[in-house]
Design a protein that fits this description.
single chain, 399 residues, alpha/beta, TIM Barrel, two-stranded antiparallel ribbon, 11 helices, 15% strand, globular
Length: 399
Amino acid sequence: MIKEGTAAFIDGRGPVIPYAGKYAVKTADVFDRIRARWNNAGLADAPYRPLRIEFELTTKCNDSCPSCGMGALSLQAGRSLTDQQIELLLTEFADVALPCVAITGGEPFVAMRALLRFMSQARGFDVEVNKLTTNGIWGSAKRCGPTFDRLTKAGLLDNELFVPLLMLSIGEQTTPLEHVARIIHHAVTEYTDRDLNIAISSLADPADREHKIYDLMRLYEQTYGDFPHDRIHSTMRVYLENERLEDQAPIHRPGHTSVARWMDSCYDCFAPTVGSYVLPTALLKASGDLYACAAFNVPEKLGFGNIFRESLRAILARANRSDYIATVRAGGGLKALHAVIPREQTEQMTCGSFCGSCKLLIDDFEKHTGATTQETALPFVATDALFSRLPAAAGGRRG
């Protein structure tokens, strides 16, 4: 398999090689094209502009993973974006010249109508779908081929900038591995790596660090022959605690690492990057809350507004007024905070992840500088309030 982290291309730090990396691009001048769009949108001078927004199409899921990072709900309790919400999102994305999105859930394929509607309409707003995450529920013999046909018809392969990525997530999910193997086989036999990239996100139990990906590989080889290592990009992680999820199963990750060490190893999450990642990436919850980082356990203080109550342009402007984001962005990652928070302090602090260290560092940054990361905390938004900014009709436009 192709390991995550290879073929990283950062704007201004050398040439971009098309069709290389998990998040491959189709053109070497991708950053020039994106900057031209930002200039046309009047955002040439904005320090923080996401290259991609990862958003929840639905909170519904056919499964019930105890450690679900996204806090997915049952098919009965969850909800999917409406036609009006989809149009509003696309209008807002186009307003800030957002190049691409990643669609997640919940499980997007239990909201197939909304998924196809978004993909079909996105083409008219010049927004590309560069990543689609799924647990593989649709990989049965009856549904696999027809679902690929519907995705293709909706425009999955029509991107101009990015090679679309299909991300198959396996971990606590109960979706049969036979489904996942069938999706992989169809993808690698029907499409080239210039049409479609395939990745497996394998999340291991933190207690024993066992990954289902090895079972998947054995099953694939028994059914179809050699596993297509040269086509599959891997992401291997362990489950992490998520402060947004009150009912998440307890996570007991062995070992602790000093915050200082996390800081020194942190990559530059705000430098425009393609290839191994797409950065900067924001997270948009189905509630409309937008965070300036797309990690599942992103600290709450990196939430800067609700797109169903105000414009995305206003939310990004608020993020650009954050001293914390400005410091991390200018200094190339969390290591920049060494200039604010004494190393002897961060050497004594421990946690289990980059995101955990970020959460601790935000609080200490505010104590040392007197700055407030959020101008106002994200409020609870009642369901009825989510419709306050929507067009009057699905086909309408906001004034």
